[in-house]
Design brief:
Order of helices and strands: HEEHHEHEHEHEHEHEEHHHHEHEEEH
Number of helices: 14
Largest sheet: 7 strands, mixed
Mean pLDDT: 95
Number of strands: 13
Strand content: 15-25%
Strand order of the largest sheet: 3-9-8-7-6-4-5
Structural class: alpha/beta
Shape: globular
Radius of gyration: 22 Å
Low-confidence stretches: 391-395
Length: 395
């Protein structure tokens, strides 16, 4: 190290390099709720960057449930769940989630990331094999790495290639197939029918993360596994409280023995302070709305069908999207950032997604729809994008 260089001076150089590549992230600060409209610096933007798919994050009934619990059970949970941190709100939410999913039991984690990280690393370890879709969420990827099992990554949604890999790795003690149900950057589904069949034929566990699908897909809102008719064939079901349910946290549902095992072996559960009681109460209220108001998910999916058709007609590449998540595939990060800035100048917030969130050369804008959006908001977006659909790359 040169005499005048400090240990962290390398960071400035690396940040400059990211900026030149169009890969530097800068945080956006807003005032008020992050709903269909977003207040940034006193100006209102139509928000297409939120995961609040059913418009429940600021629903008065959800807020009321949190407020009542706050008065009754206090603010913090004050301990980990295995000490004094698990209160009535946690127990009630877990029972409601198990009933909603039709499973024997459920367990709630502070975040969806923690749920995936802890669960993968609790059910497989050295001598085991994990089979993971190449586009799985970072939390699943990190869970696989942390498990120390042999990790086999298969091409996106290529279940035939997966079958070949599984046939050649029969020596493993335990085997786990792990996948997102709805891929957050592409808006497409995992081939869960085929994956369930593979798991059964090869005596493997099947773990499915329904983070972006819970509340949105399926007759009851359970997710893509329910929508495709294979929910009861999924051994480990993971969901989040922070997207369609509008709150914070993650959960795992399954057999009672699975949940008991996670209570004893899931490090992110054992060694984390339990989620806020008020957050659990809010999620419980949101879950009731999901069950009682199916029109919310019907609306957001209908909006998505209409918007996709209009964008395709303009010439945009929306990939294999079949959900409320619609990517506009651009290519290079600088171009994606430039287009996002152009839209922002017109009062539309559509975030640019760049590596490492997506592979190199696949930067995009990601449109996330909500039941809180109206047709006028979508028409504004279509009109704005129409200016660029057939234009040369934006400088």
């Amino acid at each position: 190290m040169p005499p005048n260089e400090r240990p962290l001076d390398w960071i400035e150089e690396e940040l400059s390099s990211l900026d030149l590549q169009g890969l530097l992230r800068r945080r956006l600060t807003h005032q008020g709720p992050a709903g269909a409209l977003l207040d940034v610096g006193g100006k209102t933007y139509v928000n297409f960057g939120s995961n609040d798919y059913l418009g429940l994050a600021a629903d008065p009934r959800v807020l009321a449930a949190a407020r009542i619990c706050l008065e009754e059970q206090g603010w913090g949970s004050a301990a980990s769940p295995l000490l004094a941190g698990r209160g009535a709100a946690h127990e009630e939410l877990e029972a409601a989630l198990a009933a909603f999913e039709g499973t024997e039991a459920a367990i709630v984690f502070p975040t969806g990331f923690a749920a995936n990280l802890a669960t993968v690393s609790a059910v497989v370890s050295r001598g085991d094999a994990v089979y993971a879709d190449e586009l799985n969420h970072a939390s699943l990827i990190d869970g696989c790495r942390l498990s120390r099992a042999d990790v086999h990554v298969y091409p996106h949604c290529d279940w035939r290639r997966l079958e070949e890999i599984m046939a050649s790795t029969r020596h493993a003690r335990r085997r786990l197939i792990v996948t997102d149900a709805l891929f957050s950057m592409d808006g497409d589904f995992a081939p869960l029918v085929e994956l369930a069949g593979l798991a059964e034929r090869h005596r493997a566990m099947l773990m499915v993360d329904e983070a972006h699908a819970t509340g949105v897909f399926g007759a009851s809102g359970r997710g893509v596994a329910e929508y495709l008719g294979v929910a009861q064939r999924v051994d480990i079901r993971v969901g989040t409280l922070s997207k369609a349910l509008g709150g914070m946290g993650g959960f795992v549902c399954g057999r009672r023995s699975l949940i008991d095992w996670l209570v004893n072996r899931a490090r992110a559960y054992i060694f984390s302070t339990a989620p806020l009681p008020s957050a659990c109460a809010a999620a419980h209220a949101a879950l009731r709305i999901v069950r009682n108001e199916p029109d919310r998910r019907q609306r957001v999916l209908a909006l998505a069908v209409d918007l996709r058709a209009k964008l395709v007609a303009q010439g945009w590449d929306v990939g294999r999207s079949e959900s409320q998540i619609i990517p506009l595939l651009i290519g290079e990060p600088q171009q994606a950032v430039a287009l996002a800035k152009q839209l922002f100048a017109q009062g539309l917030y559509v975030p640019a997604i760049r590596p490492p969130s997506v592979p190199a050369g696949q930067s995009r804008l990601r449109i996330s729809l909500s039941a809180a959006h109206d047709t006028d908001m979508l028409e504004r977006l279509v009109a704005a994008l129409g200016q660029f659909a057939h234009a040369p790359a934006i400088e």
